[in-house]
Amino acid sequence: MQQHALTNWLIDQLTREMKGFVSQPANMRLIDSRGALARKQQWENEIHPTRAGFALIAERCWVPALNGLLA
């Protein structure tokens, strides 16, 4: 359980730093996919989604964020 809590904390800290970094140049975006996968079965381990998990992240987070930018 401590490993899961530590992983979440590290990812939250990285996201906080990245938000500050991408706020400066206009041509960068941060796609925050934290919370996109809620079920344990969607994860291989603490940081790697399953194949189906990756597909859900792409559908829920990446496609909406990139829609219109690549056209």
Explained architecture:
The protein is mostly helical. It has 2 helices and no strands. It has helices at residues 2-22, 51-66. The chain is flat, with a radius of gyration of 14 Å.
Average pLDDT reading: 88
- Ranges where pLDDT stays below 50 over 5 or more residues in a row are none
Distance between the termini: 43 Å
What fraction strand? under 5%
What labels describe this entry?
71 residues; mainly alpha; 0% strand; flat
Topology (elements, then pairings):
Blueprint: H1 2-22, H2 51-66
In short:
The chain has about 70 residues and is an all-alpha fold. The chain has two helices and no strands.
